[in-house]
Amino acid sequence: MMDIDVEGVEQRVFTGVLPAWDRVEEAVQDAHRRESSATGGTVADYIPALAEADPGLFGVCVVETDGQVHAAGDVEAEFSIQSVSKVLTYALASDAVGHDVIAERIGVNSTGQSFDSVMAIELNGGHTMNPMVNAGAIATTALLPGGNADERWEILHDALSRFAGRRLELDEDVYRSETEHNQRNMAIARLLESYGRLDVDPLEIVDVYTKQCSLRVTARDLAVMGATLADGGVNPVTDQHVVSPEACTATLAVMATSGLYERSGEWLFEIGIPGKSGVSGGILAVVPGKAGIGVYSPPLDDAGNSVRGQRALAYLSRVLGLNLF
Amino acid sequence: MMDIDVEGVEQRVFTGVLPAWDRVEEAVQDAHRRESSATGGTVADYIPALAEADPGLFGVCVVETDGQVHAAGDVEAEFSIQSVSKVLTYALASDAVGHDVIAERIGVNSTGQSFDSVMAIELNGGHTMNPMVNAGAIATTALLPGGNADERWEILHDALSRFAGRRLELDEDVYRSETEHNQRNMAIARLLESYGRLDVDPLEIVDVYTKQCSLRVTARDLAVMGATLADGGVNPVTDQHVVSPEACTATLAVMATSGLYERSGEWLFEIGIPGKSGVSGGILAVVPGKAGIGVYSPPLDDAGNSVRGQRALAYLSRVLGLNLF
Amino acid sequence: MMDIDVEGVEQRVFTGVLPAWDRVEEAVQDAHRRESSATGGTVADYIPALAEADPGLFGVCVVETDGQVHAAGDVEAEFSIQSVSKVLTYALASDAVGHDVIAERIGVNSTGQSFDSVMAIELNGGHTMNPMVNAGAIATTALLPGGNADERWEILHDALSRFAGRRLELDEDVYRSETEHNQRNMAIARLLESYGRLDVDPLEIVDVYTKQCSLRVTARDLAVMGATLADGGVNPVTDQHVVSPEACTATLAVMATSGLYERSGEWLFEIGIPGKSGVSGGILAVVPGKAGIGVYSPPLDDAGNSVRGQRALAYLSRVLGLNLF
Amino acid sequence: MMDIDVEGVEQRVFTGVLPAWDRVEEAVQDAHRRESSATGGTVADYIPALAEADPGLFGVCVVETDGQVHAAGDVEAEFSIQSVSKVLTYALASDAVGHDVIAERIGVNSTGQSFDSVMAIELNGGHTMNPMVNAGAIATTALLPGGNADERWEILHDALSRFAGRRLELDEDVYRSETEHNQRNMAIARLLESYGRLDVDPLEIVDVYTKQCSLRVTARDLAVMGATLADGGVNPVTDQHVVSPEACTATLAVMATSGLYERSGEWLFEIGIPGKSGVSGGILAVVPGKAGIGVYSPPLDDAGNSVRGQRALAYLSRVLGLNLF
């Protein structure tokens, strides 16, 4: 079960609007303060670049859809975005190929299996089940426009930067390390290819996918990205249009269904809003129409989700009445 | 993929409140009118009592949390509630044993497998994954209070009637027929027992479960039940308290995760609100804080969901801005 | 991996005949002596009647197809036959319904899964894969002649006694204990029934199956039974015809394929003759045309096979040149 | 079920020796004659080089362990060896690394799944289950000696030629075609690598594996290869030592367990000797101590096994008393 502590924290009811500015500000500061002392979890260590992360870093940021920012702690610390990027490439691909095509090509149903399972692919005759597991995420990146790998990466890099409202940089160390450890993703790409589910070169697409996971972001960036998805695709800080409202709706639905892999149901049960976690310790959550939330704290639980991040989100969900249900 | 037709229907945005009375009324009438002519699907025929259902029956009903009722078509036609009952027994059991116990005992994650799979039980060492598949539903019914099978059934019968706001009757034909065809549920109950996951007699609990599925309801009843879940557990028509707000939140979360079995993700992607379907042709959907929706039309698609029911809900979701995402 | 010790034991080549009487006699005495001191393994304890078995008991018996008997150790100690009975009921059912029907109804392929898996049933749409796992064994017992449960049991009891060459007795303690712990077998029988793969009452057939597993045998009995299968269905001690040569061939083939569940391949790789183990510590092995072997020693390895039994068989296989390959 | 026709063909009993020369000769001619008219099956067409095979070609060859050859039909027609090569590389690797290492590294148990399943790998934490499915075969080829891909191929090419007793040639067309269609094998190799189960470069090893499958052989070659395995590793035609007796025993055991993928049990049930089929229409079978059998006929059944080949072997098994059980 999720390790959260909301004993005595009253669950407020979801309404059409967020509470007033000072209530949100206070909640963000409280969330950071109460969970700063939470221990437990271990920093991901399968590549050196991740293992070196400072376990003490902890940032919480809420960006409202009107552009207001609430920040506490290390919201400017940079880390590689990892799996959180799956959400954004899905929004982009959804925008590019449309609601029906993305649903047919990538799938929208939960696998009930872990993020890097190949079993789910075989049981479904080569169809990926959803874009939040590696197989679906790689197939999603392959749907992005671009005549070759470089173009595809450029387009993707630009778009992810527009989501953040600033130029994101590639973490070369992470990219190199990941490249040396991506045999399983290459197996997945080859398997998709063998089922005729990949129109592009599998090696190139795994490379683009590895790059997208290696972009450096902050908790603040995640919150801005989330607020963009909450706001129908317009970045509320830069006012720049990034994706269509339809793409945002589709993206939030798949996040709700499978944003936390086999723990997705538990997340919805405890927190009640779409979310997506990454192995570097970031979590992006979205309160539709209201706000984006970004949290960062490297120690992960055994399911690979940030310990403090989940606890902070569980607290915010209750005191701000974010739970959709 | 789901067979829906929303070409040209504009997706309105979810806000804090439903549109005004006449807009909702008009949408309900429109949904009924446009989908009346939808063909396709076949009536469930595994027991005679279901096979005899009139495929032409079609009712759509919305009950707002302030008690207002919008109805079109055959909203008073009775049918057995079937799997829709899983939602209500889960709310009751959740109320009875509490948030943490229900999560631990029944599970909240999607299986990615069909409603009567035994494979998911074995792969999880006897743990049921969620209360919307038969294994979890049977285990949920077993958590209800009552010293013996009769007491358990009485308590359950009363509570489901309170959800509907009227005394529900048992369909004896359906109950008898189902009893003759419940070998698989008995296999599931025995399997749960063999894993030590059932504290009560497996034969008795399958009998209570079969009875709960055989209660007669109408589309209007489903809408009232849904409105009760939408309203924090208070029946907005009778003003009677049925379950706690916490139990409602928990129930809506698991409906969102797995209310339509292996198609749950697709449902959330297209319709965007918690829903639960039954093999007799009913669907109960909930717009948190706003309304309950009940639809009834016997012909089912290959996934066992009402064809007209899904189409009507997809239409209502768009024109009334019900999609949570 | 199997825990055997054949370091330095020369593998002789399989020929058309067994070595001379004194070589076999010496090998049996040697096998008993060298493995008497083998430790490790634990006595099955899921029912009291099994848990009370004396872990020190150890018997090795070879019965040649000309009726000669070689015995060492506790070859007259009685124990419940358990899963070894699957082999004999398969031979009987095969005789009763014929080669083609038994192949179609019960299956002959390995599941690659454990003995009481329900997953394999579901993955194969209700077809059992082979008669050596519980599902297939229960379906096999259901194919035996007999107008009702009592007749079926009487016929079965008689036939198993003919295999042994003496009247076998039911172990009432084991039968009662097993009856209290057979929820999983009842789940399996219900599941088969739900797929329409069982023509008889599931409760009755599980009862007959439980009885067949509770018959008391000795290591000598197992060897005689094995010699009967090796000898084309004629008991070489009583000269009584038990089953047809065709039924024996079919039975030895399925033993080779799946007699030791998911370890069947390993057994064939190390020992190279058809075998079948039971949870009480017995193993029956067959050298086609030459001999039957029965061993008994209660401590089991983690796969549920007798530790000393496997070691003794590995030794005999090598020194007597029994390996078919 | 297997499509064989042995109505009225009497099953002779397996003895220590084959029948006399003229009986074997007559049986081979009969087998060819009776099955020449068998229709059904389709030639593999996933690569052009296979699709062009003449469906009318049909050869049957038995080579006794004393070197006598019985041949009927197109026993000199060449075809690519395909999966039959798995048997020979396993014998070589077994010889190279020894009984215990090969058992631990490659596995010996049946998967119960199809030849190119990746699911079995995942369910077993990266362990391959046996050398007759692609995953295990690729891992087996990786165990062969050789400092680099070229050396490995040279050693392998030489050894397979020694098995046949003549220099085998690479079919360049088949090799090129297969190379263009081996995404799934590359996925499997990457997956093995990701589990740390492959010590060599996955691309190189898939290339060597593709080459080994592309060697040209005849039905006569298969029979000689089989006779070499039957004869403890000495080629009875050239009298050349190819592998050790221990390696032969190990190889025949795994052929018996899983030589025909998920139909292995059925094969053992009907034919009763170790066999291995290939997608080009060849089957190699071994009668331990007595003979090797090679058949060739391109039309395959839905399980990918030669239709006429299986029928001819079922006939030979019965009239010559080859069934080990």
Tell me the name of the CATH homologous superfamily of the largest domain in chain A: DD-peptidase/beta-lactamase superfamily
Q: What do we call the CATH topology of the largest domain in chain A?
A: Beta-lactamase
Oligomer: homotetramer
Head-to-tail CA distance between termini of chain A: 20 Å
Individual helix count of chain A: 14
Compute the average pLDDT of chain A.
92
Strand element count of chain A: 7
The helix-strand sequence of chain A is: HHEEEHHHHHHHHEHHHEEEH
Q: Could you list the spans of chain A in which at least 5 consecutive residues all have pLDDT below 50? A: none
Main pleated sheet of chain A: 5 strands, antiparallel
Counting helices, strands and paired strands, the structural category of chain A is alpha+beta
Biggest chain pair interface? A-B, 46 and 46 residues
Name the overall outline of chain A.
Answer: globular
- How is the largest sheet of chain A built, in terms of strand order? 2-1-7-6-5
DSSP helix fraction of chain A: 40-55%
Beta-strand content bin of chain A: 5-15%
Total of domains of chain A: 2
SSE blueprint:
The structure is a homotetramer of 325-residue chains.
Chain A: H1 21-36, H2 48-51, E1 59-64, E2 69-73, E3 79-80, H3 85-97, H4 99-106, H5 119-123, H6 134-141, H7 149-164, H8 172-180, H9 183-194, H10 202-213, E4 216-217, H11 219-230, H12 245-258, H13 264-270, E5 275-277, E6 282-287, E7 291-296, H14 307-319
Helix pairs in contact in A: 1-14, 3-4, 3-7, 3-12, 6-9, 7-10, 9-10
